[in-house]
Amino acid sequence: MKPVSIRQVAARAGVSVGSVSRALKNQPGLSDETRARILAAADTLGYDIGRLRARPLKRVVCLLHRQHSTLTGNQFFSHVVQGAEAAAREHGIAMSLFSVAPTDPLHDMIVALHEPDGFLCAGFLEDEVLSELVATGHPLVLIDYQWRDLPAINADNEGGAFTAISRLIASGHRRIAFIHGPLSHHSILQRMRGYRAALFHHGIPGDPELEILLDRSDDPEGASARAVDELLARPTPPEAIFAYNDVCALATMRACQRRGVRIPEDISIIGFDDIGAAALSTPPLTTLRIGKEEMGRIGMQCLADITAGKPATKVVLPVELVVRGSARIAPDDLGGVES
Fold it and tell me: What positions does the domain HTH lacI-type occupy (predicted)?
């Protein structure tokens, strides 16, 4: 008699082959009810779970959203990818890099053609993209993003924002603006939460007029310039601006300087990420440092661990406030690096 196939288990449970694979390998990405139904179907049919023993991780596809695909111009994800590549070399893993969008035929373009053993996804990806990747049954690790119960490697975005705003407040700032991108991005939402939590913790009422969402139809330079114009036009302009990342912070600095606003004498500016250009601006940018290459390394190691049968995990890496010349911040014992 022929052994029971994974397709028969999928048909019995009413799910995809990928879902059966995830359930039998005890990988995340399924509800408890679906997992239990699949295991019951496998048991009823007499499926030999030993046939799904993990094989070594040999081929990994690293995916970026197409908006981040120009790595030479993306000083955040280029370092994440470098870290992942370094870990892949150490483990003898071949890593390929692709940019994707929701309309791409992922199965034909990547899964069938490159036959990966796992996926490493850096940054925001739409739900439909992640759902299709989960359905393949291959292990999947997220970096700088969070979705359902998938294993993920993130920085302490909320804690970092809380620290930055608290240091500004301790140094006498009260009207602190936040310029940000779309809150559908996990890291941006967490930074917003940290910003608001710090204001609340220090007894400063939040002001919706100081929270500016960038216009996504424009480039970062133009969108940041309009945000600065909007803030400076307020009856009481902000004393400090917290930008959701360094690219936005540097564009905000240039926009202020073109308008004759002195930094940090008239307004303090803090960014997030500590990209290479942050230390080279005039004045140098105060920011929050993330271990970008470390995120990539840990993401690849996590993927290798899952393939080897180890439990999936979520990792939150600490961030560090780097105090430079763009913000009036008094030294204290709250931590941080003077640069």
Answer: 4-59
